[in-house]
Design goal:
With 174 residues, the chain is mainly alpha-helical. 49% of the residues lie in helices and 5% in strands. α2 crosses α3 and α2 packs across α4.
Amino acid sequence: MLKPGILEAVRARWKSLAPILDERRRRLWAGAEANALGYGGASAVARVTGFALNTVRSGMLEATQFAKGGRHTQEPGTEQQRQRKPGAGRKAITEAWPGFDETLARLVDSSTRGDPMSPLRWSSKSTAKLAKAMSRGKRTVSRHTVAAHLQAMDYSPDFQGKNTHYDLPRASQP
């Protein structure tokens, strides 16, 4: 585990550099920073920057190759401002599936628990079961996507653990 002071220094450097770096340079910076930190550096940089761990690891590899004078696709300064075209990548589920949130709300509505006036509601259905129910048509959705949308809708998963609040001690049982 890295010391908190080191993580704060990495976070400060990231906040100052992030606005001026393009996608490739961000990855290279993250890789170089992780290489400099040593063991645990990749996960620390991923936590600080919000990058996926695989992105930091590929940046570590690229930074190492670049430092050794190895192969790289372009010289720094010659690449374009963006690596990908605007709008590239997968569309958000709400764009690709109009009415997704309404369908999810209908499914969850029957299993909603809690005070309707309370800002926090919870569902007794698991995200895996909700995802399976949502995926019955031609579209599929993961349990992680369902969980993210439930959280955005202010739902909380129902805790299935032992409720010790109502358990009586053995001595006081009849």
